[in-house]
Design brief:
2 helices, three-stranded antiparallel sheet, Gamma-B Crystallin, domain 1, 8 strands, alpha+beta, five-stranded antiparallel sheet, disordered N terminus
Length: 141
């Protein structure tokens, strides 16, 4: 009996040590449900809205609003947000073209963050300061 307890204690100690040094298997995302918490300030109906700082904070900049798909944010009036966005909200219309995917690079390339209508992300470790294009589509993420 005493030997079994020592073995179990050693096994738990080893498991805790491995867990303490293990890296997360996926990116961290802080999700935001607008249906439960309300639409963030200044995000117009039918738009993908992007803020410079986390938690929908302006950080001294205005909200970037994208109504249509954009292959390259640097070629839009919202060019200032290219590679600077830290939080996103999809205030799109339910139904046709209601979901949007934000891409790391122009021309819909690289990693992406997908948002259904009424959903946002107050921060995403993979996409922070990396958005460069967006594409609206039918269906859910």
């Amino acid at each position: 009996m005493h030997k079994s307890i020592r073995w179990a204690t050693g096994l738990l100690t080893a498991a805790a040590a491995v867990g303490a040094f293990a890296a997360p298997a996926h990116a961290e995302t802080s999700w935001y449900n607008g249906g439960q918490r309300g639409v963030p300030t200044d995000c117009w109906k039918g738009y993908l809205c992007v803020w410079k700082d986390t938690d929908f904070q302006l950080g001294g900049w205005g909200v970037a609003r994208f109504e249509h798909s954009n292959a390259n944010w640097t070629k839009t009036p919202m060019a200032y947000m290219n590679d600077h966005g830290s939080s996103w909200y999809n205030n799109g219309h339910p139904g046709s073209f209601s979901s949007v995917r934000v891409y790391e690079h122009a021309d819909y390339q690289g990693r992406s963050l997908c948002l259904d209508a009424g959903w946002g992300a107050t921060w995403d470790s993979d996409m922070n300061d990396k958005g460069s294009s967006n594409r609206w589509f039918d269906g859910r993420c």
